[in-house]
Amino acid sequence: MNRKGKLKGKTKKASMVKKPPWLELEENVWANILHKLGAIEILETAQKVCTTWRRICKEPSMWRIINMTNDGDLSDMDYDLEEMCRYAIDRSQGELVDINLEYFATGPLLENIAQRSGKLKRLSIACCYGMVCEGLVEAVQKLPLLEELSLAHTTITTEGIESLGHSCPRLKSFKLNNSLYMGSGDYFENEDVRNEEALAIAKNLPTLHHLQLIGNSMTNKGLEAILDGCPHLVSLDLRLCKYVSLNEVLSSRISAQIKDVKHPHDSLSGLDFSFKACGEEDDEDDMFDNY
Predict the structure, then answer these.
(1) DSSP alpha helices (H): ranges in 23-130?
(2) How far apart are CA 291 and CA 282, in angstroms?
(3) I need a labelling partner for 179 at 20 to 30 A (CA). Which of 151, 227, 263, 268 fits?
(4) Is the confidence at residue 21, as pLDDT, over 70?
(5) End-to-end CA distance of the chain
(6) Which of 179, 178, 111 has its CA nearest to residue 151?
(7) Integer angstrom CA distances of residue 152 from 63, 93, 97, 123, 126
(8) 105-133: buried (b, 16+ CB within 10 Å) or exposed (e) per residue?
(9) Is beta strand 122-129 parallel, antiparallel or unpaired with respect to 210-212?
(10) Position with higher pLDDT, 159 vs 23
(11) Contacts by 269-276 with C-beta closer than 8 Å and gap 24+?
C-alpha cells in the first residue's frame, strides 16, 4: 500500500509541474525568433535544441533567406560550408529569394543555386576573388528574377556583366566593391583597361537604380559613360575610386542627375561588409594617404 501510495503521490506531483513558459510559445513565434539566426547557427546548434525547433527548422519558409556569414577561417571549422549551404538550399525547396555567401563560393555551388532557386532576387558574394568568375556568368543566365547583386572582393568579367544585362531584366542594384589596392585594372596604365567594368555596366545595365563601385579603377571616362548609360540611377557610390577626378562640370552633372552620391574621398563608415574582413590591413586614414 505504502509503495503504491508513494508512486501515486510522485505521479500526481510530476503532473503538477508546469512547463517552462518559453515552451508554450506558438511555433510561428519561434520561427520569427529563429529567422534572426544565420544558416550556420541554425544547422549546427538551434535545430538540435528540441523536437519543436527541429521541426520548425525543416520548414522551407525558414530557408527563403540563407545567410552564411562567417569569419573566413575555413581551416579551423569542423564543418564544410559549401556542403552545409547545399543542404540549406535543398531545405528551401525552391523558395530561396536571398542568399549571402562569404569566402567559400565556387562555380559549382553557384550552378546549384541557379538550378534550384529560380525565385532568387538577391545574391551577395564576398571574398571569393576569382573563384566564381565563369560560374557567375552561367548562373545569372538562370536567375531572371534577380534584383540585387552584391560582389565584394569577388571578380566578375565583362562577359558576366553582359550576362546580367541580357538575363536579369529586373536588376536594380549592383555592388562591385574592392579595396583601394584590389580594383581590377589597377595595375594597368591603359585607360581603356581601367574602364572596362564601367563601360560594360554603362552598356549593359541601363535599368540600374543603385550602383556601388568602391575601389574601382575607372577614370572620368568610365564615370561619364555610366552617367550616359544608366539614366535611372538614384544612388552612386564612388568611394576609393582614386582615378576619378570630379571637376566642376562633372560634379554639377552628378548632382543634377543623381539624388544620393558618395564621392571618392568620403568615409567608408556604414558599409555592410568590412574590407578588413577580407584581409585589408590598413585603416581608413592610411587608405586616403595613398591618393
Answers:
(1) 27-34, 39-44, 51-57, 81-92, 107-116
(2) 14
(3) 227
(4) no
(5) 92
(6) 178
(7) 23, 28, 20, 11, 5
(8) bebebbebbbebbeebbbbbbbbbeebbb
(9) unpaired
(10) 159
(11) 271/214, 272/150, 273/126, 273/152, 273/177, 275/152, 275/153, 275/179
What H or E segment, with its residue span, contains residue 235?
strand 235-237
Contact 85, 68 (CB under 8 A): yes
Strands 235-237 and 260-262, how do they pair?
A: parallel
| Half-sphere CA count of 57, side-chain side, radius 13 A | 22
3-state percent helix, strand, coil for the chain, nearest multiple of 5? 45, 15, 40
pLDDT score, position 218: 95
Contact 65, 36 (CB under 8 A): no
Q: Is the pLDDT of residue 290 over 70?
A: no
Supply the angle between the helices 107-116 and 81-92 in degrees, to the nearest 10: 10
Residue 71 and residue 48: Cα distance in Å, rounded?
A: 23
C-alpha to C-alpha distance for 158 and 191, rounded to whole angstroms: 16
Provide the pairing of β-strand 65-68 with 148-154: unpaired
Residue type, 42: I
Q: Which amino acid is located at 159 in the chain? A: E
Q: Give 86: exposed, middle or buried? Use CB within 10 Å, 0-12, 13-18, 19+.
A: middle
- What strands lie across the sheet with 98-102, from one edge to the other? 65-68, 98-102, 122-129, 148-154, 173-177, 210-212, 235-237, 260-262
pLDDT digit string, tens, across residues 201-260: 999 999 999 999 999 999 999 999 999 999 999 999 999 999 999 989 899 999 999 999
What is the spatial distance between Cα 194 and Cα 183, in angstroms, rounded to a whole number?
9
- Using CA atoms, how far residue 6 sits from 12, 16, 67, in Å, is 10, 16, 53
Question: How does DSSP classify residue 285?
Answer: H
Q: What is the pLDDT of residue 34?
A: 61
